[in-house]
């Protein structure tokens, strides 16, 4: 099941027709407490982010406003009014020459993993970032052992372009980052 009404996407995540649909939509200000709760889990228990102190809701809202202020997508996945995950595309780097490159970030509620929700959020980011004029999407995946995120990006067409070894230190161990890249739209085939 798929319904596209502007930026909202209603998607049946399971193969059976009886499964509840998951709505992929633009993140609103009222979603930030749920977004922050998901992120807190990843800060405190995961390696997808190298942040070690969870930001509060106000800081998460400030970050969201910065992304939206750049005309970039910030999406959530919702089922029966409950947030299952969120994703956004932010600038890859601050310097102006990087202005056509974005970095994706995807975080799921632990109970929502393995249901294809990350794949749907990433598809939305790719479409919306392309529409916003981005030409390259980069994934900087925390932990080279993060097989789920690496697989989601590979299925979306990203290719592995490198690994930074032991660039983070979290939970008492060194952590790699895996770099993956996907050209958007015409990519580097034309000038912007």
Secondary structure: elements and pairs:
Blueprint (H helix, E strand, L loop, with lengths): L1 E4 L2 E5 L8 E6 L5 H14 L11 H13 L4 E6 L2 E10 L9 E8 L8 H15 L4 E7 L4 H9 L3 E12 L2 E11 L9
Helix pairs in contact: 1-2
Structure notes:
There is one protein chain. This protein has 192 residues and is of the alpha+beta class. It has four helices and nine strands, in the order βββααβββαβαββ. A nine-stranded mixed beta sheet has the order 1-2-3-4-5-6-7-9-8. Helix 1 crosses helix 2.
Keywords:
single chain; about 190 residues; alpha+beta; 9-stranded mixed beta sheet
Strand residues, percent: 35-45%
Helix-residue proportion: 25-40%
In angstroms, what is the radius of gyration? 16 Å
Shape: globular
Structural class, from secondary structure content? alpha+beta
- Please tally the helical runs, counting DSSP H or I stretches of 4 or more residues: 4
Side by side, the strands of the main sheet go 1-2-3-4-5-6-7-9-8
Low-confidence stretches: 1-7, 11-18
How would you spell out the order of helices and strands?
Answer: EEEHHEEEHEHEE
| Average residue-wise pLDDT | 92
Q: Give the tally of β-strands.
A: 9
Distance between the termini: 35 Å
How would a crystallographer describe the biggest sheet? 9 strands, mixed
């Amino acid at each position: 099941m798929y319904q596209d009404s502007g930026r909202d996407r209603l998607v049946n995540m399971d193969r059976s027709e009886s499964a509840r649909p998951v709505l992929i939509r633009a993140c609103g200000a009222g979603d930030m407490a749920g977004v922050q709760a998901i992120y807190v889990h990843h800060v405190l228990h995961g390696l997808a982010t190298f942040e070690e102190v969870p930001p509060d809701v106000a800081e998460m809202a400030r970050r969201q406003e910065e992304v939206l202020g750049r005309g970039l997508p910030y999406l959530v996945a919702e089922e029966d009014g409950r947030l299952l995950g969120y994703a956004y595309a932010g600038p890859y780097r601050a310097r102006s020459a990087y202005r056509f490159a974005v970095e994706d970030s995807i975080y799921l509620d632990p109970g929502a993993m393995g249901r294809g929700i990350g794949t749907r959020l990433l598809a939305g980011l790719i479409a919306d970032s392309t529409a916003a004029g981005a030409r390259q999407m980069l994934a900087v995946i925390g932990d080279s052992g993060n097989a789920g995120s690496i697989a989601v990006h590979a299925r979306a067409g990203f290719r592995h372009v490198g690994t930074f070894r032991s660039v983070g230190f979290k939970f008492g161990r060194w952590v790699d980052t895996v770099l993956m890249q996907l050209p958007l739209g015409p990519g580097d085939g034309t000038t912007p």
